[in-house]
Amino acid sequence: MSMKEKLENIKAEVQKQVEAADVPEMLNDVRVKFLGKKGELTAVLKGMKDVAAEERPLVGQLVNETRAVIENMLDETKKMMETQLREERLKEEVIDVTLPSKKNKVGHRHPNTIALEEVERIFVGMGYEVMEGPEIEYDEYNFEKLNIPADHPAKDEQDTFYINDEIVLRTQTSPIQARVMEQGKLPIRMIAPGRVFRADEVDATHSPSFHQIEGLLIDKNVSLADLKGTLEIFAKELFGEDTKTKFRPHHFPFTEPSAEMDVSCFKCGGKGCRFCKGEGWIEILGCGMVHPHVLEMCGIDPEEYTGFAFGVGLERIALLKYEIDDMRLLYENDIRFLKQF
């Protein structure tokens, strides 16, 4: 069989296989079979050494023409197939432009975040700094430097998560106050928001992980009147100008004297309703004058400096301010709930 006949047979075979192909992938197989490194046309080129020298230019031209015909045949067929496939896909994927579009669901600020930003705005406006500290804390800072001795009930494992004898998950953000006082940069005006941990069962009003905001002011000639005035401004800014405050004697190890502060019910104006359980007042926070022993342990002279401290649960503020009746709703991250605020 002459070289020309071989080439004609290759073209005919390629055309036959191209016509039998029904997807572009099959055309790739044909291309490899005939034009690849081990393809049939390449094998013909390797046989050129057996062709007479004077016939090689003509045979070479025939081989190149055959390659061009095969490549053109494959490219045209592939374009035709892709066009047909695209038209079929467009018919199947018809878009009804009159249908409503899919709404892009975006996140929303959490009620805790909104409440925290409001509290920070109020106290920063009064000259306070926002301070942070570690959530994993030494027992010394979480308890000892706050005048809570080793035999105090708060140190029981039923109330506190212990990592070892010296390290706990902080039960309050008061350790930040102790760390700042130790630095000795006076006067101090600070609030310390953050996550805290206590061994509580999850229910409508408790969680093993929640958030607190603790405040501290240390300066010369600070009195209980300064504490009451500061917290009264805070309550009015947070709950409204008509809000009244009431202080009840209490006991905290790190303050003396100590008190709990109530605010008049912003739902009924103090008349008594279901929200305030008919009392007209709602407990909001604990506070007091910093205990002299706490000042001494943190390197501050209680004869020269005095101060006050207070602590409020961030979740409590959010629950009251937005009238949420179950604390667990704050942690479920349901966008239907969050977008209400």
UniProtKB/TrEMBL annotation:
Its main location: cytoplasm. It catalyses: tRNA(Phe) + L-phenylalanine + ATP = L-phenylalanyl-tRNA(Phe) + AMP + diphosphate + H(+). One of its GO terms (cellular component) is cytoplasm. Binds 2 magnesium ions per tetramer. Mg(2+) binds at residue 256. It comes from the Bacteria. It is found in: Cytoplasm. Keywords: Aminoacyl-tRNA synthetase, ATP-binding, Cytoplasm, Ligase, Magnesium, Metal-binding, Nucleotide-binding, Protein biosynthesis. GO terms for molecular function: ATP binding; catalytic activity, acting on a protein; magnesium ion binding; phenylalanine-tRNA ligase activity; transferase activity; tRNA binding. GO terms for biological process: phenylalanyl-tRNA aminoacylation. The keyword Ligase applies. Its EC number is 6.1.1.20. Its cofactor is Mg(2+). Residues 119-332 form the Aminoacyl-transfer RNA synthetases class-II family profile domain. HAMAP family: Phe_tRNA_synth_alpha1. Belongs to the class-II aminoacyl-tRNA synthetase family. Phe-tRNA synthetase alpha subunit type 1 subfamily. Tetramer of two alpha and two beta subunits. This is Phenylalanine--tRNA ligase alpha subunit. It comes from Hespellia stercorisuis DSM 15480.
